[in-house]
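Bench notes, bay 3.
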Amino acid sequence: MPVFFSHLNQPKERVALSVQVISSLNKEQVHSVEMILGCNGAPPFVIYGPPGIGKTKTIVEAILQIMRKNAKILVCAASNSVADHILDKIISNNVIRVKETEIFRLNATSRPYGDLRPDYLRYCYSQDSVFRCPPLNALLLYRIIISTYMRNPKQLGPVVYSQDAVAYGLGKSYLERLFDCKHYCNEDESFVIKLGCPLPEWLAQDLEEEEYGR
């Protein structure tokens, strides 16, 4: 079985970049944004914490800061409500102007058309009141794409149909594979930060069982 993210054994040094924040953030949230902007390699920077701790606010700030770099951004949320909330925060900010043609809210075809606020529909693509994905050439024009994709693997794991993908370890969620790497499970602050809380219970239990061979 291949070892995922084996290059993390010798990660590139990450340096927090000082930024002029757009939103009102606390010191911990500002540091998280600075670490995200300081990423100079493929390994992602992970932020986690309980509801109400400011994760979405921090992520939106990071998105707006990255927009200043003229980059393209894929935002993957755990639910439609979170994805819609992120969309709302981005388009309602008063500092970085985001054009309607720059941001796209990708919805599953199974989502009821009436489930989305009418004023958000202009950021979506649909046919006959059914949400669709636009043609690839149109999709590539957007600077920000917001979708519902990532989930807690203890609630809903990945559905993998390809046996080749299973053989290469993709039957385990991306988040779980990340935390199999020492820099994440050891809470290396160059790769992961907890906003005012310990490791998630499901993750802490998994790591404990793995460590003691249960």
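Next record in the batch:
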Amino acid sequence: MILQRLRSEKKIYPLFCILQSLLTFFIGLALVRQTWFWAYLAVLLLIHFFFGYAYTILRVIPVFVLVAASVGLVSLAYAEPLQALQAGYRVLLIGVSAIPSLSMSAMDLVRNFNQIKVPRWLTLGFLIALRFTRIMASEVRRIRNAIRLRGASAAWYRPSVAYRAFILPLVVRIMNISDLLAVSLETRGFRMDGETTQYKSLRLRGRDFAFALSILVFCGAALLLAYGGLSWLPQF
């Protein structure tokens, strides 16, 4: 029951998700040397949690924590502890900033781009790029399962077997997917020019504006604290 509630995330306007990820990421890069950068990540996580991204946080953050810890430990071999910590912070920043973007639907993003008259070739490129990672992961998983069922081993130290059992099937499958994509675009009447219609339109809601405003206030406060200090506070 709890997991189902977490899954039912209320989506934010896709364009706001993309802009939020870019804004918080680049501002975070500028602030990563601050001693309180951990608070920047924590508050950003709280904002995402407040706007209903708990399920995505539970899925994404543990992975990035492990990767950040690994990067930090590796960095200790050639850098100071503070620099290693900052390297781990940068990895965490990627995951925390991308949470809204990772949870949005690819089709919603395409609809959003069509509404604001983004060129069709760019929209198609975004859609393929967003779907490609999942499709590739699924195909790799299927090929590995097929290799296990046949009792073969395509380990890296057996390149000849890996080439025949893994690389060749993957290349053939990618070529088949590209052919299916071309046929799908053709049968659906996709074209680069001309007027198009949409079955479903996305509308801005008060929740979207509240999310954007909270991110802007948060980023502004972080920049003010980093570069303006506390001198703007009244002195007593």
